[in-house]
């Protein structure tokens, strides 16, 4: 196990250096290419409820176009949220929330690990009113920003009242041709998915990636038994599907 974590750490540092070296223009170009691929996919077009991360300004595939498109078409959209371990004032301006896309292995471990939630974004206006957090990521917070009521909590994807998620678009650091994923070392998605699928069917799990994040043929992401496996990975070069994912893809339309 220790050897696997060491391999993960080495690959993570190497890939993050590569991503930091990409120009904003190249990241934007590749992000638009991935968005266009998704627009052609039945699983994306027909998804009735979607989870998708809000991207960092640098070093990560940008989801701005995807998020705006889903909000405009009225698809229930849920985004990851890591609550601060200290109490957060009710609505608006706290920037001390944490994004799973921004936290890396270099972050010191908290004494108590907060759990990732997925909260609903309601409209383009709701998104537009979100401030940037300290990582430069839009921070929806726990309360809606597109209504006049000061205390209007966002719907939690884990709530029994929420519609089951059909699809989650997932970030990561590196991916291989068998749809294994290397995250940023905090296991937020692993724990969320384990909890979510204990009471509901698994959504289609599809990563969105920049070209350098896909390892060369024959290279593998180091994994442990607690790491979840993706159904597919979308990059500017196309889609890689996990062997056996066809049944889930068909189930999503």
From TrEMBL:
Keyword Nucleotide-binding: yes
GO CC annotations, alphabetized: mitochondrion
One example of a Gene Ontology biological process annotation: tetrahydrofolate interconversion
Membrane spanning residue stretches: none
Domain of life: Eukaryota
Pfam families reported for this sequence: 5-FTHF_cyc-lig
Polar residues compositional bias, start-end: 92-107
EC supergroup of this enzyme: ligase
Keywords annotated in UniProt: ATP-binding, Nucleotide-binding
EC number(s) given by UniProt: 6.3.3.2
Location of the region described as Disordered in the Swiss-Prot/TrEMBL record: 88-112
Catalytic reaction equation(s): (6S)-5-formyl-5,6,7,8-tetrahydrofolate + ATP = (6R)-5,10-methenyltetrahydrofolate + ADP + phosphate
GO molecular function: 5-formyltetrahydrofolate cyclo-ligase activity; ATP binding
Family matches, as InterPro entries: FTHF_cligase, FTHF_cligase-like_sf, NagB/RpiA_transferase-like
Family, as annotated: Belongs to the 5-formyltetrahydrofolate cyclo-ligase family.
This protein's name: 5-formyltetrahydrofolate cyclo-ligase
